[in-house]
Amino acid sequence: MRQEFCRTLLEFSACPEFVFLTGDLGFMALEPLREAMGRRFINAGVAEQNMVGVAAGLSKSGLRPWAYSIAPFLYARPFEQIRNDVCLQNLPVVLVGNGGGYGYGVMGSTHHALEDYGVLLTLPNMRAYIPAFDSDLRCMIQELMTVKHPAYLRLGYSEQPSWLVPGPYAAWRRILPGDGPTVAFVGPLAGAALDAIRESGLNADSWLVSELPIHRPPPEFLSSVRRSGYLLVVEEHVSGGGFGQMLACELLAAGVCPTRFVLRPALGYVSGLYGSQRFHRKECGLDPESIVSELNHAAHS
Questions:
Q1: 31 and 144 in one domain?
Q2: What confidence category does residue 27 fall into, taking pLDDT thresholds of 50, 70 and 90?
Q3: pLDDT value at position 49?
Q4: Are 265 and 238 in contact (CB under 8 A)?
Q5: CATH number at residue 285
Q6: What does residue 162 show for φ and ψ, rounded to 5 degrees?
Q7: For residue 133, what pLDDT is reported?
Q8: d(Cα 54, Cα 63) in Å, to the nearest integer?
């Protein structure tokens, strides 16, 4: 996604209010943006707290700053500055975290972002944007260039199947219609899972959610849950503060209670080992085979 992210931002590089800050990261990806923006591309160095504070000051002066780093370096290290300088002031600073979930694989827990949007959404005025596919980025970036609130953009690796045409971007999308079990995904892991669901013939009614926090889900989604009586939620994020918990609250408020509710979140480090993103997903039951197995069980129970 970084390449598509850079290509899309280049379209806004001439905007005099747009300023891009990086915590000494983005090499082999963001050089075209650096060349196009000149002095408005700022390498803040390995000083994320200062970078976020500077971004808040730039925003206060009327500019539109974006601050970029590896996800945990962006939301965990400068959390106080995000809370006090950005969110409590309701400033339109865009925080861009690369490598959501287990994206940095064998680099281990210091580089994994398993609680990022849950933590950030406890702060006032914050919204999170989680693209699943490269094609989501254009609409998201266009919106983020005009928002009047703090925002977090979580980047990962696009896993869009070659056969899938996602259709127009929306915060909620019925990405693979079906009359079987209902399943809702957050983030790029949806791509490989959708491929496996399609091959399985389970005909699961598959939804993709890309913006948080959620408010009342679409009527079509509520109808799907009522019909199937089953809901599987899959996200590469811990359960605490995640989409699954938000959705459970919204379903209760709407009076929609599936007979079976299954949440597949990130479980941390099940074996105590570090490995690739695929390794960690499999340990947590977030891999396509585990998801299809769960849906198959639901379809035959």
A1: yes
A2: confident
A3: 97
A4: yes
A5: 3.40.50.920
A6: -65, -25
A7: 95
A8: 11
For residue 287, give its domain range. Answer: 172-299
Predicted confidence at residue 86, as pLDDT, reads: 98
Tally of structural domains, the chain: 2
* Residue 260: how many other CB atoms lie within 10 Å: 13
Q: Name residue, tokens 């926090």.
A: 213
Same domain membership, residue 197 and residue 151:
no
What's the residue count for the chain? 301
Of all residues in the chain, the percent with pLDDT exceeding 90 is 93
**pLDDT tens digits along 181-228:** 999 999 999 999 999 999 999 999 999 999 999 989 999 999 999 999
Question: Residue 66: which of 155, 135, 133 has the closest Cα?
Answer: 155
Secondary structure class of 39 (helix, strand, coil):
helix
- Which candidate, 285, 287, 296, 290, places its Cα nearest to that of 202? 296
What angle (nearest 5°) sits at the alpha carbon of residue 258, between those of residues 117 and 286?
45
Whether pTM exceeds 0.85: yes
The burial class, CB within 10 Å (0-12 / 13-18 / 19+), for 61 is exposed
